[in-house]
Amino acid sequence: MTDSYDLIVKLRAIREFKPDPLSNDDLGAILEAARWTGSSKNSQDWSFIVVTGDRLQGLAEHGDYTDPIRASAATIVLVKEEGGNLFDIGRAAQNIMLAAKTVGVASCPITLHRPADARRFLGAPDEVETRYAVALGYPTAGTPPSRFGGRKPAETVVRYEHY
Ligand SMILES: Cc1cc2nc3c(=O)[nH]c(=O)nc-3n(C[C@H](O)[C@H](O)[C@H](O)COP(=O)(O)O)c2cc1C
């Protein structure tokens, strides 16, 4: 299999990071991958807010499992703009994670369980939604894999022609 296939199937949520800030090149490459994500009717009803430094602690208050935000070098909040849909937001999140891994940056998807509070924290207008984010940082040596791990067997999730 190709390196890119390996990249896809071996992508894992990483929750611990080195404290080092992301380089401008790496962050820029990750944001470019987000921007080039395909969307329904190419609507691109999204925007991306990069949160760093002290503001990470404040952002982390708005979800229940947000330690990866606290540990991150930067967290990108995916903003679903008015008219946008979560399928597109999910695709952008996956592109962020894959691009991050390509440039050597680990990542973890994050739910902001109180998106309205997150939205106010970010100074975003009422009509947008800020429910998901991706925490990013350089991996520590021997960063442990996800506390969940594994996948359901193919025969339980893949069907042909009928349910
Ligand atoms: C929509 C979504 C929301 C998630 N929210 C969180 C979260 O709030 N906190 C967290 O630590 N992980 C979160 N995760 C990461 C999942 O727990 C992780 O993707 C899953 O356990 C599989 O991990 P693995 O790919 O490392 O095996 C989220 C993942 C997705 C897709």
Which structural class fits the helix and strand makeup? Answer: alpha+beta
Number of DSSP strands?
4
Radius of gyration, in angstroms, nearest whole number: 16 Å
Indicate the CATH class. Alpha Beta
User: Termini, distance in Å?
Assistant: 29 Å
Outline: globular
Percent of residues in helical segments? Answer: 25-40%
Assembly category: single chain
The helix tally amounts to 7
CATH topology: NADH Oxidase
Which residues sit in consecutive blocks of at least 5 with pLDDT less than 50?
Answer: none
The CATH level-2 architecture is identified as 3-Layer(aba) Sandwich
Average residue pLDDT: 96
Main sheet: strand order: 1-2-4-3
SSE succession? HHEHHEHEHEH
Explain what the structure shows.
- The chain is of the alpha+beta class and 163 residues long.
- It has a single domain (3-157), classed as NADH Oxidase.
- The chain has seven helices and four strands.
- The chain is globular.
- The chain binds flavin mononucleotide (FMN).
- The site of flavin mononucleotide (FMN) has 14 residues, from strand 3.
Topology (SSEs and partners):
Layout: H1 3-9, H2 24-35, E1 46-52, H3 55-60, H4 67-71, E2 74-80, H5 86-102, E3 106-111, H6 115-122, E4 129-137, H7 154-157
Antiparallel strand pairs: 1-2, 2-4, 3-4
Residues 12-13, 15, 63, 65, 68, 108-111, 145-146, 148-149 line the site of flavin mononucleotide.
